Structures
1.
Amino acid sequence: IPTVEQRRFPVVDEERGVVAAIVMFQIPEADIERERDGETVVRHYDPRSLYLFEAFKIRDGRVQQIEATMRDLEYGLTLDWPAES
């Protein structure tokens, strides 16, 4: 994923070990080649924006669990949040 935009961490609770993250990925159109059973297989991917919300559970400084919700959107869409200073 070449472009990661508008990364936010609206919840960081160190006491409970919980972090929430919101991010937008810009994923361009691509044709990906892979080898399968000795043959080259090409898979086409349409361009899209991916809105992603993730919740992380942290224990002893390590990620123990991740819950994620994603939504595909039209390529180039943004969350319209102002840039961070």
Note: Residues 24 and 51 are 5 Å apart (CA to CA).
2.
Amino acid sequence: MASKFTSAIVRLFHDPAERRRLQGPIIEVAIAIIVRDGEILVTRRKEGVHLPGLWEFPGGKRDSGETIRACLLREVKEELGATVEIERLFWERSHDYADRTVILHAYFCRLLSGDLMPLASQELKWIRPDSLLSLPFPEANRPLLEKLAKELSRDSLEKKG
């Protein structure tokens, strides 16, 4: 049986009335939640891109014909020069901006190899979950930040990272 989220996504892509309600394209985004020593990796968006200067999690847009998991692995390699293992889906949600709709898929990932480098961002840093809400993130990420800050303690993060 399909989840409520999956049913909503199917309607977004296949129901003409639902599609007309939206402005602009539908963009699927894979998000990597990478944990190390009780902290989560975040990156800062470069100037000259959509939502410049805001913080975000590593990840990016799914290419046509690509699975969301393949997208996540590719984006982490392109953005950080690193390889991760996808552990589990943590959160999914769609968000309507004025000019586009984004569908976010956030996965816990384990860092396997590579020296982390901000290849596609202006900086990266590790931050405690309870400090996530102090950084400026895109509005679409707000529910994810709240869930991470609320549900994850130092002990539970260390078990994941």
Note: Residues 68-80 form the longest helix (13 residues).
